[in-house]
């Protein structure tokens, strides 16, 4: 099916893509958002306390609010996956996984990042059998059990706090001697809980168990030891979804993040990028920065399209 | 129009195990964002696959449904299990796109 040429196609319906849609609607830019998961990564967040006007809100709820805002202003948000972008300004072709092909003058990549896996050989086997990547989704199944969380960042910290309200004990495994990538606010909450055990300088070497995860082998200060647990939550960061730009020869940095200028333009004319997938905002990858970058990108695209007519 | 069937321990056998057509059972909970995302996808799939397959769901947050969550060892949601002739033949964990889930279901049933 071939549709009319849009002014803008936004790839990704997380906070960056949805905010860009809000601005695009206000600027009357004819656009469509194509996203795998409406709401993006924050839909998995247990609690968000750093988004202005929301003292404490679940990620799912905040995602819904932003999505509603975008829809109310007329944003067309479609569930789908973009497989390939080809062509150039003003004739980009966007190929979707369901076979549809769309045409657009400009593109905004707001495709975020995907969660890292541990990379252990039997990881897939234990998915849903003790191993989990979403603490808010799967935590409640581990009531009164001993669980572990792997990772030293804010996502790991919030998973630890959430799980400590459900599980008997939470073992928190991280590589450094301190969880120093974590906001002090979260650490304060962690210190208040009596059932969290900090496992510093611990690397997960193996997943143990027959049909169900029953423990992990960790390496700690050059010693390996086996630790019994029934659930393990993986929160070890993410990698940018920048392959669509790489296929076109656009510039990414050594971590794969899309290099953009102050107006969120990529090195490919007619393509902008915003949110967790970029090098912007000093590397602070949060909802507010994703929204901000989405707004700046939409503004740049508006000015660009105006100049072209 | 195919409707999504709400399952409980009381109707599980009739609706799933003794069903004449294959059944996709979605184990979900209101607290799970990705499960909420699956809801419209499953509704579309129910329309699309029509009489070929029945789509049903179990809310594992409902205390009455605990026996089903325990019996099917649900520890990660969304978890969609495919039953044919009363037997579980496949399990799909995590959010899935409509087209790829449909393909995987049809592949398993062929
Ligand atoms: C558990 C957790 C807790 C967090 N807590 C907080 C917090 O408290 N405060 C805070 O500010 N931030 C928090 N974050 C970070 C925040 O969620 C991200 O910074 C933000 O979501 C980035 O927005 P984005 O729009 O750039 O990308 P994303 O939210 O990742 O959205 C990108 C979307 O694009 C989709 N996509 C990718 N490729 C394609 C494709 N080819 N076709 C179609 N769609 C595609 C993805 O599926 C995704 O839905 C948390 C994240 C997690 C995981």
Structure characterization notes:
The complex is a heterodimer of chains A (309) and B (110). Chain A contains eight helices and 17 strands. By secondary structure, chain A is an alpha/beta fold. Chain A folds into two domains: 5-115 and 238-308, 3-Layer(bba) Sandwich (FAD/NAD(P)-binding domain), CATH 3.50.50.60; 123-234, 3-Layer(bba) Sandwich (FAD/NAD(P)-binding domain), CATH 3.50.50. In chain A, the strands form four sheets. In chain A, strands 1, 2, 3, 4, 5, 6 and 17 form a seven-stranded mixed β-sheet that branches. In chain A, strands 8-15-9-10-11 form a five-stranded parallel β-sheet, covered by helices on one side. In chain A, strands 12-13-14 form a three-stranded antiparallel β-sheet, with no helix packed on it. The radius of gyration of chain A is 21 Å and the shape is elongated. The relative contact order of chain A is 0.18. Chain B is of the alpha/beta class. Chain B has one domain: 3-Layer(aba) Sandwich (Glutaredoxin), CATH 3.40.30.10. The mean pLDDT of chain B is 92. Chain B has four helices and five strands, in the order βαβαβαββα. Chain B has helices spanning 12-17, 33-49, 66-71, 98-109; strands at 5-6, 23-28, 54-59, 79-84, 87-93. At the A-B interface, helix 2 and helix 4 of A face helix 2 and helix 4 of B. Flavin-adenine dinucleotide (FAD) is lined by residues 11-17, 34-37, 40-42, 44-45, 48, 50, 81-82, 110-113, 155, 158, 241, 244, 275-277, 285-288, 290 of chain A.
